[in-house]
Specification:
The structure is a single chain. This protein is an alpha+beta fold. 16% of the residues lie in helices and 38% in strands. A hairpin with a 5-residue loop joins strand 4 and strand 5. The longest helix has 11 residues.
Amino acid sequence: MVIEDYQEPQIRLDLFGGTSGTYAGFDRFDRVVDHRWLNYNTSTDVDRFKYGYDRASNRIWKENTVSKAQTTPVYLDELYTYDGLHRLKTFDRGELNSSHTAIAGTPAKEEDGRSTPSAIGRAMQKTAAPPTSINSVRRMR
């Protein structure tokens, strides 16, 4: 899918956005780099996300261009880091710097995905818990 039209809200997803034979929304590895929703009437962006990737195709940043262009900017950009096995390690949300390498100031939201053996054990115990409802027990037999 390169262009998706929605007649009722009068918006269009446009990953084409280029000249014949080129797709501005994709990079040379067919990864989405510019996810753009346009308003039919005004040709302005309703929502637009730009993405950057590392050599392993892990998404390392996401830029929300519409939210930061508002009269009162809302910074919803995201920055991701991965461990040596390409698992998500950290996630920060806030204002992305111009080189897309850090969140400026204190992140509005951050998560640390590092796990410890005890955390893994607790997660396994939670998923291995027996069903609690009578109906689900009967279905299992």
